[in-house]
Every structure is written in C-alpha cells, then in structure tokens.
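COURSE: Structural Biology Practicum
ASSIGNMENT: Worksheet 4, Part C
STUDENT ID: 0417
INSTRUCTIONS: Below are two proteins. For each, the amino acid sequence is given first, followed by its structure token string. Answer the questions at the end about the second protein only.

PROTEIN I
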Amino acid sequence: MRLLAAVLLLTLPTLAQDIHVHVDPHGPGSIDSTTDYKTIQNALDHAPQPPAPFRLVVEITPGTYNERVNVTRLRPRVTLLGLGKRPEDTVITGAQNAKSTGGTYFSETVQINADDFAADNLTLANTSGNNGQGVAATVRSDRAIFKHVRFLGDQDTLFADFGRQYYLDSYIEGGVDFIFGNATAVFDHSEIHAIRPGWLTAQSRTTPEQTTGYVITNSHVTSGLQPFTVPENPGVPIHQSFSLGRPWRPYSRVIVMHTELPLDLNPQGWSKWKPNDPTPQAFYAEYRNTGPGFHPKDRVPWSHQLTTQEAAAFEPSTFLRGDDQWNSLAAAAKLP
C-alpha cells in the first residue's frame, strides 16, 4: 500500500496540465459546464482551477463581448486568448466612465487582480469617449503579459497600477493620461497612439526608493491630431501637440528609448502636472529615440538623456526581473 501511494504521488503531478475552456455566446455552454461557457465572466467564475504552475486558458470565439470582466485574486495564472485572425476580431467592451459609475476606479471594462495573468490576440475597450475618465483595463497583476492586445479609450485608457507588467506587440490609444498608475511596466515593440492633445503617461511613483515606472522601448508613438483653424484667421492652421507624460505623483518615472516620435509631439517632451507647479522631482528620460519629434535640445531642463550604461538598467529583461528572476521575454514567447 505504501508503495502504491508513493507511485500515485509521483504520477499525479505528471498528469496535471493546463485547463482549456471555450467561450462562445452561441455555443452550448452554461455555468454547469466545465468546458463551454457563453460569457467570459462565466468561464472565470465556474471553470476548474488547475494546480500550480498550470494555467486556465480561456479561448474566446471572435465577436464583441459587451460585458465587464473581473479576474479576481482567486484566479491566478489565467490566459485570455482570442481565437480570431487579428486582435480586432475579439473585443471586450464597455462604456462606463467616472460620472456614470461614481469614480475612475469603478469605470473599467476589464479588471485584473490575479498574478501571472496573460492576454493574447484581443481588444479591451472603453467607448465612453471624451466624457471624462473611462478605463478600458485596470491591471494589478504581478508577472502579467499582454501580447497582441489593443487597448482603446480616451482619458485613462490603461490603469497599469501594480506589479510587473510586460506589453509586447500591442496597441494603446487615448487622449489624456491614458497610461497611468504605479506598476513596473514595459511597453515593447508597441504603438502608443494619441487621439487628441494631452499626455501619454501619468505614472505615479510616490518615493524615489520604489522600483516602479514605465519603459517604452522599440516602439512607435503616433497621433491622429489634426490642424484646425479659427474664424478670426481661417487661412492659418493651428497645429495641436501632446506630451510624453506628466507626474501624477511626485516621483513619477518614465523612460522612452529606441522609439520613433512624431512631428506633433511637443518639443519640450514632458510637462508639469499643473503649469504653475514647481520643478518636478520626476525622472523622465530618453535614449536613442528617432523621428521628427525627437528634439533633445528642446526638452525641459529637468528631463534626462541617458548614457548607454544608464539605459541598460531599463532593458525589459533587467527592469522586470525582480527578486524572483522573472524572465518576461521567455514567458511572452510561450504565448501564440
């Protein structure tokens, strides 16, 4: 009997594996199922939980899902996987905003609180528009990965608030402070798109000892800003501009490197939170950027142009490593 028990203990872990479930609004699923569900939230609420280190993979049929999704702390190691050919084919969307919900922190379409979360090949959207804060995704997950994910919104699109987060081959658009919070986040080989004058980032590091901050690297910053005219002078177009960031909290930290910058980026690059604020204590820096918007001599005097040695600390694998030696690049490579 003891020998049999020992064999079982050795064998059972080898039988464990990732659990795959399917979401299709028109499929056979129900909350009683263990494999098929009609909504994403039903899958998260009722699917079996695999033992560590295995994952729950939620495979989502292409379509538009008008639902609010909450990945709770009790659901670690979840992967949301869109089954379409493109991220645009699978959309999770909502239209809440701070006015309609009672605050920015209640307006998100998707809330992610569990560690080791991953998403691939889908779109997270908040369509409330230019109507105050409206969050597409709130991310409070350590070792989170977003690959081929689109984040659509206007003000406060992505609340990257806690934990180490790696965004790869993704697209983020908004108008005002549309990447904000106090996560340790890297945006790699991605597009950051400004849809109106404002600020790309509002990072909120509160002390200089915190290891948090945002790194935008090997990416493209783009914009859809259009010149406009006023009746008093119809023949002279007025060109709009935006900034890379402003400090939501005193020690805000954002580094932009190896990234192409557009012409309508404000030559000063960075802004104070309010125009009359004292010189910020924020750490805003660039390294080897390119494009018509890269004007290092015109940047605000309290920003930095990094040396090669200084920039090395902000390479994705180094900046996200942490005490547990997390390999963000290897983890992302495991996704499709």
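PROTEIN II
(use this one for the questions)
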Amino acid sequence: MRRLIALSSLALALIAGPAARAETTTQPKEWTFLIFLNGHNNLDSFGAMNINQMEKVGSNAKINIVVQWASLENGSVKRLYVKKDSDTSKVTSPVIEDMGRVDMGDWHSLVDFVRWGSTQYPAEHYFVDVWNHGSGWHDKNGGIDTLGTMDISWDDLSGNHMTTQQLAMALEESAKIIGHKIDLYASDACLMAMVEIANQVKDSVSVFAGSEEVEPGAGWPYDTFLAAWNKLTDASPQNVAKTLSKEYAKSYQGTSNSVTFSAFDLAFLPELNSAIRRFSESFKKLGASAAKQALQIASRSQDFTNSDYIDLIDFLTNLKSSSISSLNVGALSDVMDAAQSVIIANDTVRFPKAHGMAIWIPTSNYTYQQYSDLYSRLSFDQESRWGDVLKTMLK
C-alpha cells in the first residue's frame, strides 16, 4: 500500500485500470456489500484491521465486498474490491480507483460511492455500511448552536459530518440509483439504533441495524460475520442482519466490553408510530404528579452513553409496572407490541435491560430546550408526536 501511495495518480490509474476491468462484471450477484469506511479521524488504525478481517473471507460468487477507504495514514481515498488472502499484516486487495482527497463527511460522497459500486458490481441486493463515529440523532456537544443534528461520518480533515437528515437524503438518492429500497443499511458506529434515525430512513431502507450503546474501536467482526453470512441458505436482508447482530455480540463475549446490537424491519415502523401517537394523546392527559413520576421512571430506565438515549421497551416496562393509575395501559401495551414487531434482532453482552431500540427522553428541561426545535423537524416526532410525551413529563 505504501508503494502505491508514493506513485503518481496517473501511474496508479494505469495499475488499477486492468484490475477494475478484471473485477467488474455486468452479471448481478446475489449481494453487493458496500462499506463506506471513513478513517479520517482517530479510528483510522481500525480501518486496515477491519479490511484485513474482510480479506480472510473475500468476495465470492455470491457476494461482492467493496470498500471506499479513507485513511489519515494513507493520505488518499481508495476504492477496493476485497479479495481473499492469508496476509493479516497488510491490505492486499486491488485498488480499483484512487480518488485523492474526498470529504467523507459530505453525504454526496456516500451517494457517489453507491452509484459507482452498484454500477461496477451489480447485485440483486445491496448492503450499505457506514463505518465511523456515530452519536445517535444528535451530537452531545451540539444543540441550539449547531446547523443540524450531528449523526455520523465525521471527517476531521474537512470538519464535516452527515446530519440525520443528510444520511436520509443520501440513502434516498442511493435507493433511486439502485432502483429499489436499500435492502440493508447498518452503522458500524456508536449509538445509532434509535427509533428517530430508523424513521428518517424508512422510505429508502428495508432493514436497519446498529448499536444502542457505543461500539468498541474494533467495531464489527467482519471475518466471522462474512463467514456466517456465506453459510446462510436464505440470505434475506432480515437474516443477514440477524447474523450480523449475533456475530457482533459473540465477538465481545469473554471480554471487558459491554455491547448491544439490534436490527429493525422498517416495514413495521408506521404501525409503531401510530401506536406511539395514540399513547402520546393519552399521556397528555396525565396530571402533574403522574407526569413527574413518569419522568423519574425514565431517569431510572436503561440509558446509554448519552443519558437522554433510553431503551424504549425498558422505559415502557417500568412505566407499566408503576403505581400510576391514570396511565392508559392498553395504549402503552400497543406500543410495546408494535416495537417488538419492528425489532427482529437484539443481542447484548452485559446489557440485560437493553431491548434493541433507543429513544430520546431528556430528563431535564435544559437538555430538552437544547434540542427540541431540531427534534420537531424529525419524521419520527411529526408522525408519532413523541414530543408531546416529553413536554408533559417536563412541564
């Protein structure tokens, strides 16, 4: 890789050109796995490690593995077609294209990658993986002074990032390019398994996966995941997501890490939104004492690194077993049932109260005021009126 970096762009193009022609095929495979690997940050060293894991398995007759790799160390962004090798000390997969400097925090870069990857490596199904830092639907250091909700793919060179809305726009454009919904989208990043983010992308993604909690730096175990994926007799988007969730959690068993991973079938999200809207309508009728008690219950429910990211089902379970007699238990149960239909996988290590889906519940007016305006612009709040629940608890 260092020798390739030292070559001029023209020389590299001459070397990479034949490889591109050799690997490109117009015959669609079953899957193309597109990894948008943004190492323009302090996670850079884990990028090469994860690609080496991919190379233990490599692309095959069923699956194309394609990476857009941004690395601080390498200096330029490269597109790789991942091939199997036995060298775990360096990345050996062919460089199909050296792109020079690319802003990986610009959502258009993700769209360009999907356009290129789906053209060069067509498939029946597409799995898009955004690899980077993540912060859920908002950046804990953001708020009223930010231009948007800081979500994922922070590029330290440009200072740019994708907001929740921009991620949705990127996936919407990508779905138009491939001609159907993205079969599976997942974030190899922290704090992304939130109902707010899933809702923002539901019109362009079929299955959504991520972690409620922060991820260790090593992220996903690409080698064991790909090996298990290859063994599936029914490699549906749902089954691939379930396999990823299981292998991720398994890889951290016996370590000091506490992890979560889950997957959502987004076809069931409208039903969940409707159930939450009915619950919100009933919740607004609670008196001040009952609302304050509900807020205290939220503060005791399972949260994650951002204390205002709380497990939805754990909160509702605690609420249901509380002494608040004026709750509409039927509406609450409907939300729990609908959420369980959405969540098709949930695997954890040392997180017994994590059920797979986080939701925003600020337990202070200060936090609520920081983000309430941004929150009201999200599809989830507009469809579910969850903000009414928050206002009632915090009044």
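ANSWER KEY EXCERPT:
Q1: The chain has two domains: 2-267, 270-343+354-394.
Q2: Residues 283 and 292 are 12 Å apart (CA to CA).
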